[in-house]
Amino acid sequence: MLIPSKLSRPVRLQNTVMRDRLLVKLSGVANYRLTLINCPAGYGKTTLIAQWAADQSDLGWYSLDESDNQPERFATYLIAAVQQATGGHCSKSEALSQKHQYASLSALFAQLFI
After folding, report:
1. DSSP state letter for 97
2. Which site from 14, 35, 54, 60 is most exposed, i.e. has the minimal number of CB atoms within 10 Å?
3. Rounded to whole angstroms, how far apart are CA atoms 29 and 101?
4. Whole-model pTM?
5. How far apart are CA 13 and CA 75, in angstroms?
6. Total structural domains within the chain
7. Which helix (H) or strand (E) covers residue 10, if one does?
């Protein structure tokens, strides 16, 4: 059973600083199958993504925590986020979700994003 909050995009907060330069950079992510935002805690990743995501309809969200270091759990949530982003129209993710047919996380990434 999936925890819905792990797949829920963050809510855009009012009265936050708009980081226009970074939002412009994010406007080009549609050219990529996967975008990762990585920096230390407290740098505003969630706030930035919430600002950007407010105008996006085709977005998958997956909030990681310590329990996601188990490969099968990680894969299950990643596939659910891909299904969320595609409105369930990614045949690869649907097949992978039902049959767990991937040899490793590397193989899963290759099947979903290459």
Report:
1. H
2. 14
3. 28
4. 0.72
5. 30
6. 1
7. none
Query: CA 36, 3, 9 angle in degrees (round to 5)?
Result: 40
Tens digits of residue pLDDT in 65-96: 888 888 888 888 888 888 888 877 776 766 66
Cα angle 42-63-86, degrees, rounded to a multiple of 5: 130
Of 15, 85, 19, give the one whose Cα is nearest residue 52: 19
Q: Are 25 and 54 in contact (CB under 8 A)?
A: no
Q: What are phi and psi of 25, to 5 degrees?
A: -60, -40
Distance, in Å, from the CA atom of 89 to the CA atom of 114, rounded to the nearest integer, reads 16
CA distances from 61 to 13, 21, 103 (A): 17, 22, 24
Residue 85, both tokens: 């982003």
Selection from 38, 96, 25, 34 nearest residue 64 by Cα? 38
Q: pLDDT by residue (tens digit) across 12-57? A: 778 888 889 999 988 888 888 778 888 999 999 889 988 988 888 7
Fill in the amino acid letter for 84.
Q
Mapped onto helix, strand or coil, the DSSP state of residue 64 is coil
Residue 72 domain boundaries: 4-113
